[in-house]
Amino acid sequence: MNSVAARPRIKDVAEYAGVSPKTVSNVINDYEHVSDRTREVVREAIDALGYRVNIAGRQLRQGRTGMITLAVPELDVAYFSELAKHVMTEADKRGQTVLLHQTGGVRERELAALHGFDARFTDGVILSPLALHPRDLATRDRALPVVLLGERPAEGTTDHVAVDNVRAAREATEHLLARGRRRIAVIGGRVRGPQGTDRLRTDGYREALKEAGVAFDSALVVPVDAYHWQDGARAAAALIDAGPDPDALLCLNDHLALGALRALHERGRAVPEDLDVVGFDDIEASRFSVPSLTTVAPDKREIARAAVALLLDRIEEPAAEALQDHVVGHELKVRESTGG
Question: Is the distance from CB of 109 to CB of 53 less than 8 angstroms?
Fold first, then answer.
């Protein structure tokens, strides 16, 4: 009768490596305070014995599912699909599976994610909200760890990862001003209302104008219904058709900017000879447009890394009092659409 070899345990790895089971556990969990030599010896023992971490058993003992939720507005907006890829990569490094949820920016769907879908199949949520009210966060179930991305409706309610949108828009506008542009339109901007991404980026634009002594013209701030290619094309076409032409477009995401490039081409306007165009997000398509697009590049890998790390820390220590605010860096990628 054939016998099946017993699955190696941490104790077996420890004996093989000549260390304690606790040291093996520290190496498996990638704790910092282990010497390089000890780490190497333990990993050699793991490989030699064919040891594999029993993630399901560990999660069962801890009362966890090993799944986290990422809830974003739209996956057909490339920023969110690229961000989702980075979140999945970071989660995989930490032994987690990501449940992807598309909210459409609808409050009811964002609320469902905020409350973990009233089920037990997710240990925590990373949420990029558009429609939540401050009271939604104030009354949420604190037992479910949540990390918010982007602008949050209320301060001091959850851990939070964001870009400094005011500073980023100010720097982009300063770049256009340094090129001699003075009639700079903002596609997707908003002058009044809650402190969402559109309002904050418009505020940064206004700060740059004021510093340069350029008068603000509210007619050059053009709201949009959505942040898709066609919305950028329609807004740019309306600006050109209304006249006088702006000499630069600051578009609040790359989809708007790429749509605007198409509308400008159809109306015989050359970029950057007649006017400059700048976007936000540095999606992959921005590097392949003609002309290539100058854009504000948030560090999407760092957003993902920070969000996953904050969420897992909160899952490990849900009672920890201090909420974390992590501001992620950005860079203006100067390309052909502004003469780069």
Answer: no
Q: 145 and 67 in contact (C-beta within 8 Å)? A: no
What are 171-192's pLDDT values in tens digits? Answer: 999 999 999 999 999 999 999 8
**250 bridge partner residues:** 186, 278
Pick from 77, 2, 25: which is nearest to 255 by CA?
Answer: 77
DSSP-derived letter for residue 35 is -
- The DSSP-derived string for 282-302 is --GGGGTSSSPPEEEEE-HHH
**Higher local confidence (pLDDT), 151 or 98:** 98
Please report the DSSP string for 57-112 in residue order.
HHHHHHT--SEEEEEES-TTSHHHHHHHHHHHHHHHHTT-EEEEEE-TT-HHHHHH
Q: What is the DSSP string of 191-249?
A: SSSSS-HHHHHHHHHHHHHHHHTPPP-GGGEE--SSSSHHHHHHHHHHHHHHSSPPSEE
Strands (E), 112-188: 125-127, 146-149, 159-163, 184-187
CA distance 330 to 165: 9
Longest dimension (CA), the chain: 89
**Distance, CA of 81 to chain centre:** 10
pTM of the model: 0.80
Closest CA to 27 of 10, 12, 15: 10
Residue 205 near residue 184, CB atoms below 8 Å: yes
Closest by CA position to 15, among listed 53, 41, 54: 41
